[in-house]
Write a structure and sequence with these properties.
Layout (H helix, E strand, L loop, with lengths): L1 E7 L5 E7 L9 H40 L1 H11 L10
Antiparallel strand pairs: 1-2
């Protein structure tokens, strides 16, 4: 018996992680199941971290030229972010 986690990425790729729970006839002790879930969660967190870092680096490479060409635009956007927002009256 094993636990399985499937991650489907936006590009259609699937990544599957599996963690054995033990060699049983279908019954598993709660402590054994808890440990297997914790191990699978650790593997899942590591995989998600790698995926996020890959997406960030790909995004940075794609946007590198755009950011360099629009530095003045970025400064203007930051100035408008400090303006107070209009409050809407409550009904």
């Amino acid at each position: 018996m094993s636990l399985q986690f499937t991650l489907r990425l936006r590009n259609g790729e699937e990544k599957i992680l599996s963690e054995p729970v033990g060699h049983t006839d279908g019954e598993v002790e709660l402590t054994v199941l808890h440990k297997a879930i914790a191990r699978l969660q650790g593997k899942t967190n590591d995989l998600l971290t790698v995926c996020v870092e890959e997406q960030k680096s790909a995004g940075l490479q794609n946007n590198h030229d755009v950011v360099e060409g629009n530095e003045d635009d970025i400064d203007e956007d930051e100035e408008t972010d400090n303006e107070p927002e209009e409050k809407k009256p409550r009904k």
